[in-house]
Amino acid sequence: MKRIVKGKEPSDFTAWKEQFRQDHGKEPEYKDFRMTPEWKNLIQALLKEQGYICCYCMQRIYGGDSHIEHFVPRDIKNTDPHSMRASDVELNYGNLFESCNGEHWDWSHCGRFKDRESDPILLSPAQEDIEERFCYDLDGSIDAVHADDSAAMSTIRILNLNDTALKRHRRTAIFTALKNADPKSSNEALIDSYSRQDESGMFAPYCMAVIWALREFS
Fold first, then answer.
1. 11 contact partners, CB below 8 Å, separation of at least 6
2. Secondary structure in 3-state letters for 32-58
């Protein structure tokens, strides 16, 4: 997984929430916000923040093929209303990401697949050490760096990150990068190019899997 560095929430999002409170005398919910102009702007802000890759699997997304993802699910207010995590989950910017919809909208992995769990406990793409918790193999599979890292293992299971299609896509990305690698050098320049956004603000799809392969296998 790629770490998502959460910035300050968009000003029009903040303004919309404050205006809603003034107009309705209550806290807004996601259903109130959805389909507003500010909601559409938020999607673009999240995409830009993430470098146009899914917050979980790192596949390319553009907005029409993804959804606003609540890392802590909204329905935790019903399943565990007294939990500290249940407070402010609806429109807390720190809880919002952009997730893919699986393979061709089949919900086979990532956010929509996670929705099958009543109270998923997994690693956040925003936590500082997220990139150090996972490793990859040449077959495109993802695993926990440490076998006893139950949180990383649960994250892979809950998000179905070893979905067959995902493994195939990662494998293709890895072998494409290895093909371009220079066996006589350390490939630091190539690794650097996968570590940062390009001129369009995009990270390369499956960038962390590629970086791992370049460091381990080239």
1. none
2. HHCCCHHHHHHHHHHHHHHCCECCCCC
